[in-house]
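Listing S7. Sequence submitted for prediction.
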Amino acid sequence: MRLLPRSPSGWTMAGFGVLAAVMGVVGLVAPDSLLTIMGFSPVAGSRAEGDHTLVFVTASSMAALNMGVYYVLAALSDWKAFFRWTVPFRLLTCTVFTLAVIGGRAPGAFLGVGIWEGIGALATGAALHHERRRTPQGAEQGRGLRTGA
């Protein structure tokens, strides 16, 4: 495994992974700061009984940290199949988060999370498309990385 990504698509994945990991750490260390960044108003003082906001912030932050590390490791391994798998699911995440804002389930600032996912997915998809056009057809197949996508 290298210390830096080898391809443009790898760089998009590494960038996304680092940002996800950093946001995960912020959520674990300072959950109210993460809530503010995402457009939610943190609760001043003590929380009401039955308010499990911090549990959900902790769980999603840990997931973001893990996901970020997975993305960086995949980028350093130049695991293009993984890169391809993420694109439609990141676009789905963009759609769900955008609809949450439109539907009133999330504050307007939360749209930034959806946009971040969508732009990241499109950047990775575009980089993969560009790389595929540059690479001779048999090169990826010979390494066992081609998945038909």
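Caption to Listing S7: primary sequence and predicted structure tokens for the chain studied. The chain is about 70% helix and 0% strand. The mean pLDDT is 89.
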